[in-house]
Design a protein that fits this description.
single chain; Rossmann fold; two-stranded antiparallel ribbon; Alpha/beta fold hydrolase; AB_hydrolase_1; hydrolase activity; AB_hydrolase_fold; Epox_hydrolase-like
Length: 356
């Protein structure tokens, strides 16, 4: 299959972006795609709140902020985030942890990781990326580009929340976005924990097994619209998830119109060094390759893409040298579902080891 054939396969189909760990912007539509204009292009969908009623183990108070839609107008989108802080008698540590999810999950993924970290004294902020979770979902699928995700995330984290001295915990696409965020604003971060993620430039070969899963899923969901998001999560955990938990992963998406964010991640995969985002990735790596911010990898031994191999990050970022990187046995791609307490313990231990 040629690179062009692969691109055509990806365009306009569903995503299992978690299996690729890379992105690029696709600025124009493929042949035959209809690009809505005017008011239709600016329409933003909001998942009804009733869809989130009674979610198991997710008692967190919702918080919201607004970021620019990015269409040149004054339109905005609402971003949901969790902001949990220690309360008496827990003594605050003074540490802020930013938790970034990937595709097709949302902050619900961290529901069992947040409580022990708060109990240890840390503030936890978990965003829902635009198009995911309780955040708004632009109805124009071509709004979802890599750069637009970066713009939304940067505005939310630094302009609206004004987070500083952050410990970033990033998983899957949360890492592919977050690592560039780190490279562009290193002074805002104290340390980083990367989980089953990476930052590829388009020059590397796609992992054979990961590509197999992705291509199979793309063709399957292309024929069986709509995409059932919980099938993705269930397929890449070693745990057997309760039906109520699976329903929580489906909750943000009442129908296919709400799934453009999930689906479009697939067409953001850089297949060659000529991809639109490659220069931005190259620039990010120029910084990351010199960065001594403490950097920890916590990967799942059963992850279908990495197989627990984190050398693409830990061997090339100076701050990762000598750190107690962990490969968790019995953990698949969504290791927060499989080993949440081990994940939380690794984060807390890393913070305590690297405090000045």
């Amino acid at each position: 299959m040629t690179e062009l054939d692969r691109r055509r396969l990806l365009t306009g189909t569903a995503a299992l972006a978690a299996g690729t760990l890379a992105v690029t912007a696709i600025p124009q539509a493929a042949a035959g795609d209809h690009v809505p204009a005017g008011a239709a292009a600016r329409k933003v969908l909001r998942t009804p709140e009733r869809r989130f009623a009674g979610l198991p183990d997710y008692p967190f108070e919702p918080h919201y902020l607004r970021v620019r839609l990015g269409d040149g107008s004054r339109s905005t989108v609402r971003v949901h985030y969790v902001d949990e802080r220690p309360a008496w008698p827990v003594r605050p540590s003074g540490e802020t942890i930013l938790l970034l999810h990937g595709n097709p999950s949302w902050s619900y993924l961290y529901r069992h990781v947040i409580p022990p970290l708060v109990a240890a004294g840390h503030r936890c902020v978990a965003l829902d990326l635009v198009g995911m979770g309780k955040s708004d979902k632009p109805a124009d699928r071509f709004r979802y580009t890599y750069q637009q995700h970066m713009d939304w995330l940067t505005e939310a984290v630094f302009e609206r929340l004004d987070l500083r001295d952050v410990t970033m915990v990033c998983h899957d696409w949360g890492g592919t976005l977050g690592l560039r965020l780190l490279a562009e604003h290193p002074h805002r971060f104290r340390r980083v924990v990367a989980m089953n993620t990476g930052l590829k430039t388009g020059r590397e070969d796609l992992p054979a097994e990961g590509w197999k899963h992705l291509a199979t899923w793309l063709q399957f969901t292309q024929r069986t619209n709509p995409l059932t998001v919980s099938d993705v999560v269930a397929g890449f955990t070693t745990s057997t998830l309760d039906p109520a938990v699976l329903a929580a992963y489906d909750a943000p998406f009442p129908d296919d119109r709400y799934q453009h964010g999930v689906r479009r991640f697939a067409v953001l995969i850089p297949l060659t060094a000529d991809d639109e985002a490659t220069p931005a990735f190259d620039a990010a790596w120029e910084v990351l390759a010199t960065l001594d911010v403490p950097f920890l990898c916590v990967f799942g031994a059963d992850d279908h893409v990495t197989g627990g191999r984190h050398g693409a990050l830990s061997d090339h970022i100076p701050g990762a040298a000598g750190q107690p990187h962990a490969v968790l046995a019995g953990a698949h791609h969504f290791l927060q579902e499989d080993k949440p307490h081990e994940v939380a313990a690794a984060i807390d231990d890393f913070i305590r080891r690297t405090r000045v």
